[in-house]
Amino acid sequence: MTDIHTPGSKRTLGTDVVIVGGGIVGASAALALRQKGIAVVLLERDVCGSRSSGINYGGVRRQGRLAAQLPLSQRAHHIWARLPELIGIDGEYVRSGHLKLGVCAADMASLENYAQMAARYDLPLEILDQQQLRRRFPWISQRAIGGSYCAEDGHANPRLVSPAFAHAAGRLGAQIFDQTPVSRIEHDGQRFIVDCPQLQVRAPLLINCAGAWGHRIAAWFDEQVPLQVSCPNMTVTEPLPLFMDASIGIEGGSIYARQVSRGNCVIGGGQGYTTSDTTARPGREAVLELMKVASGLFPALASAHLIRFWSGIEGNIPDRNPVVGPSHTTPGLFHGFGFCGAGFQIGPAVGEVLAELIDDGHTPTPIDAFAINRFSTASSTLMSTTIVSGDE
Ligand SMILES: Cc1cc2nc3c(=O)[nH]c(=O)nc-3n(C[C@H](O)[C@H](O)[C@H](O)COP(=O)(O)OP(=O)(O)OC[C@H]3O[C@@H](n4cnc5c(N)ncnc54)[C@H](O)[C@@H]3O)c2cc1C
């Protein structure tokens, strides 16, 4: 790392790799690069782990992911098991089990098909009929007619986990700059020149981990990604007696729910709305609707008070997969953004994959489905911009 600051001028740093964006993906990449001894500067517009990565539902699940994501997700599963040794805290990560409920025969058929596909990726799922469901999870109402259970999926506290990845990278020597927005990036033929108001960073390698804003950085390098933002609704109840001993999803994604050890239930579902380029609020009607669904399925919630609501901005891509891998226009540029409401669990594995691409030029984890050039050959169906409700 070279600091080539001259008095009176903007501070200028030279490094091996510069990362834009300090969410769980950028911070994980910084940590993985430092583990390989590679010098890295991470630039974050706000505070590391304060955007999607720090305010999400906290679902750490493999069940429900598209097939293309399952190898990455399995890799992440092993990383989550090593959280304390990796980032110094357990992040309230618990393998509570993830139970996806079905409320009609079509849901159950879909859960069964998914379980067959997931088995090919070594993800064992247990299909429960109504009687088995009732016996194992008596706190779920008769509205659910069955479910699919993944014993080792679970949840964690994003507020703790995501900033901790950045702190861990910093402890290993990554130079981390909060409140440092990147306003312009140029390439002089050899290096990227990354401009922020108070700082310029020069590096031969650049990773774009700018989350819901990553497509804008890609566009600076003539790469177009049809990303649209979504704003998942989140709410949390007052502490209640413990009853919910699995993280819950619903086939079709209407709501999701978990209970933390302090007793609060965290419940998500539906969409809020943006109030600026970087801020979002939950939607009132959608929150009322999600509580109606939640209390219908979980009678213990019927008279619970809600104590907090929030939303955040997430990048969605029509095929529901992120962009991960090298640029197709600019050697030395790598992307990791657009995680479609589900990047918290796979984020740490994406960081490792990006560090491998930088270090070795390849990764053992299949990432072809996430190539940025898939949009230049995409059909008009793929380019449609429907935002579906999240599946945590
Ligand atoms: C409400 C909600 C609930 C969710 N629930 C879950 C869940 O339960 N499980 C799950 O797996 N996923 C969930 N997700 C999705 C998950 O949180 C995200 O996919 C993941 O955090 C994305 O990580 P990231 O690092 O790509 O993005 P972010 O966390 O958004 O980080 C990107 C960072 O880039 C910075 N940045 C952008 N532009 C610039 C610039 N020009 N200069 C400097 N910095 C810049 C931003 O400030 C931001 O901090 C949820 C998302 C939301 C919003």
What features would you highlight for this structure?
392 residues, alpha+beta, 8-stranded mixed β-sheet, 6-stranded mixed β-sheet, 11 helices, globular, binds flavin-adenine dinucleotide
The coarse overall form would be: globular
Main beta sheet: 8 strands, mixed
Mean pLDDT: 94
Give me the count of strands.
Answer: 25
Could you give the distance between the termini?
39 Å
Physical arrangement of strands within the biggest beta sheet: 7-8-6-17-18-19-16-22
Please characterize this protein's 3D structure.
- With 392 residues, the protein is of the alpha+beta class.
- It has helices at 24-35, 52-55, 70-81, 83-87, 105-119, 130-136, 158-171, 214-220, 284-297, 343-360, 380-383; strands at 2-3, 11-14, 17-20, 40-43, 59-60, 98-102, 126-129, 146-150, 154-155, 175-177, 184-187, 192-195, 199-203, 205-208, 228-230, 232-237, 247-250, 256-259, 265-271, 273-274, 280-281, 306-310, 314-316, 323-326, 333-337.
- The strands form six sheets. Strands 7-8-6-17-18-19-16-22 form an eight-stranded mixed β-sheet. It has a six-stranded mixed β-sheet with strand order 10-4-3-14-25-24, with helices on both faces. The chain has a five-stranded mixed β-sheet with strand order 1-2-13-12-11, with no helix packed on it.
- The longest helix is centred in the C-terminal third of the chain and has 18 residues, at 343-360.
- The radius of gyration is 21 Å and the shape is globular.
- The model is unreliable at 379-388 (pLDDT under 50).
- The site of flavin-adenine dinucleotide (FAD) has 41 residues, from helix 1, helix 2, strand 16 and helix 10.
